[in-house]
Amino acid sequence: MMRDKTSVAPVIYLASRSPRRVELLKQIGILCLTLPADIDETQSLNESPIDYVMRLARQKAEACLQALTPTQLLRPILAADTTVVLDEQVLGKPEDDNDARRILASLSGRVHHVHTAVALAFNNQIEVVLSTTVVEMMVLSVAQIEAYIAGSDHRDKAGSYGIQSAAGAWIKRIEGSYTGVMGLPLYETANLLRKCDLKNNHLEIMSLAI
Fold it and tell me: Is 81 an active-site residue?
């Protein structure tokens, strides 16, 4: 008799409150317990966007390490951070609707980069990998921006848009990882998790089978 995979207990910790990352992990057969890491996400002076996103991913993993018991630490901890970069400037999450309007207008008709860093904490080690995707957005009208903001899909998203939402119709092309733009590059994530002793941690995988 086959066991229902939905009944399997969560087996890794995800240092995020993002439902998109939870769903992406489910897509490759991984269940998780979410353990959001509340850290200071201020970019340091003269810190490059790549150094910034990789530092935040590592610090999120470290924050979760400190919150868990020794027994809980037997399970892997996954953390990620995503940033949108235009002209070497980090475009973070919008402060309000007006800030979202400004950000979307700046991306209109331009090519930008989306960096997502993924950190895996396991066996007293933290490894961080980076996924970078080039994204070209069509020219947006004021009406398109206003309609998108009215739908609230811009909130709590780096760059004020989600490629998995209606804004996906604005994207002329991407070079790199679509799931990386969503917030968790599955190829890089899968490669990290393969390095864990998954079987001994009762991690049921499906597409990650070794």
Answer: yes
Residue from 4, 81, 96, 156 carrying the catalytic annotation: 81
Segment 47-60, tens digit of pLDDT: 999 999 999 999 99
- Tens-place pLDDT, residues 77-104: 999 999 999 999 999 899 999 999 999 9
Concatenating the DSSP letter of every residue in 44-75 gives PTT--HHHHHHHHHHHHHHHHHHHS-TTGGGS
Domains within the chain, CATH numbers bracketed: 5-201 (3.90.950.10)
Structure pTM? 0.87
Tokens of 84: 């949108």
Q: Please name the residues in contact with 22: beta carbons below 8 A apart, sequence gap of 6 or more.
A: 14, 16, 32, 34
**What contacts 128, CB < 8 A, 6 or more positions away?**
54, 57, 58, 117, 118, 119, 120
Q: Can you read off the two tokens belonging to residue 164?
A: 């998995």
